[in-house]
Amino acid sequence: MDDPINDIEPVIRALTQSPPSVQRTALHKYFTSDAEFIHPFCRTGSFDNSRFLIQAIYRWYKIMSPNIELDVKSIGVPGVLPPSYQPILIRGSAYDQQNLILYVTIFQVFSIFFVPFFKAPVELTTVLKLKKASNNKYYIASQNDLYQTDQFFKFFSWPFGSIFVTTFQLLSTLVCVVAAVAFWPISWWEEHGTEVRNEAHQDVARVEARLRDTFVDTKRNGELVTAPATSQ
């Protein structure tokens, strides 16, 4: 790619919505030969000609879902960045130029041709790690497709899979609230325990100071002894 921001959407569509020859050409043109692919259902690793496995994954993906509806959406760059750093955000993607990472949010409707009436509208974030070659072109060295759990379950033909995940997430939130209330003494001690310990140390220090004021150290016959202080 000459310009990752403007080139990435046509690349994605060539991989997911094109005939086999166009798909194969796109893979060989835009991916490194040792590119890595990571997805909730499969991964390839990175080794010489691992691109062949990515080609097989995309081919079967296209066979299963011949007519994929797809839309590229916007996303910001995660992480803490210097205030002077501004990510490029154009046409549904964000490009971290410093680390050569491209973030793309994609919405797609995935259907399987041999499962009647099945449609899975899912949203994912694809993280593309790029490599700049000596010809000043950018190639995809790694693709990592990230799904939220409820989006992941939509791939299954379970009629209530997404509802199950959402219910589980809400119950987990309720458990967190109950546990936070039940164990509030731990939070109180975390917040105030240091103050209590500091006050105890300060009390000990005040007692030691009073003792020093009451007694003075003197030498008698070359030995250090403690005697009551005398008023001046």
Separation of termini? 89 Å
Radius of gyration: 32 Å
| Unreliable spans | 75-91
Estimated helix fraction: 40-55%
Order of helices and strands: HHEEHEEEEEEHHHEE
Q: What's the tally of helices?
A: 6
Please count the beta strands (DSSP E, at least 2 residues each): 10
Q: How confident is the prediction overall: mean pLDDT?
A: 77
Strand-residue fraction? Answer: 25-35%
Query: Tell me about the biggest sheet?
Result: 8 strands, mixed
Question: What coarse outline follows from CA principal-axis ratios?
Answer: elongated
Helix- and strand-based class?
A: alpha+beta
Q: Describe it for me?
A:
The protein is of the alpha+beta class and 232 residues long. It is 41% helix and 29% strand. The chain is built from six helices and ten strands; from the N terminus they run ααββαββββββαααββ. Strands 1, 2, 3, 4, 5, 6, 7 and 8 form an eight-stranded mixed sheet that branches. The protein has a two-stranded antiparallel ribbon with strand order 9-10. β7 (120-132) and β8 form a beta hairpin. The protein is elongated. The chain starts with a helix and ends with a strand. The relative contact order is 0.10. Mean pLDDT is 77; it is low at 75-91.
